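Running low. Any example?
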Amino acid sequence: MARDKKLTVKHLYGEDLKKVSKSPDNLSPLYVQITYNRKTTRLKSFSYTAFSQIIDLRSLRFSNLRSIDFEQEKELTESQLKGFIEMDIWVINQLKELHQTHLSTEFDVSFFSSYTADQLLTPCDFFVNSKLKEHLGEFFGNRKYNKSKAFVLLLAPFHTRDFIISLQESNKKLFNEILSNDLLNFYYMLSHSLLNLRGFSENKFYFLFDIHNQEKVATLFPLKPDQLNSEKFHEILHQQFSGEIYRIFGIR
């Protein structure tokens, strides 16, 4: 019986790499070095990269605040670095497990820098708000509201929810029609819950969380009990997030 190949993870600090790098500009504070089947790859920390992306996206949404405030959030303490290291190890193992579940090809460290892995590591915030924008555009298109659809297409994903909220004051009937749509209401709720959740965890930022684990879902989306316990909510959650993972892997 063939022995399982060992996957080894080592973290490297950007400050240390500056000492040996010929071009030390724009180094990430944290890198991960992964070795499997005698092959090695070195990449920017998955967890720090996602954390940095969310800070950048939040700074775009709250453009009235000073950018320096958001840059300061990226300055890491020792405890944060330790948390990112632990999260990276979790992410690496989850990605390997997903590869083995959905792909028939032999696993290789090159998978960690592939387009598929990059798609799987899309921050949930971006996915949810992009889907809210997509379905709102379809909603207006189906009703031949072409100018409204064109306006939505110009919106940054993180501003879609703000636009919907503005309709509550200017066009209450349209606002209610939008939220009577199951998918729009679903993504509107998720967008609202993610906006109010500033904590950083693997549940918040990755598609890799267990959608069948209600406790983890509650951690990711701090919704009201009646929303979280809704059978329809879990049906749509499973359909939408599983469907996205299947799309990423090219599964029909």
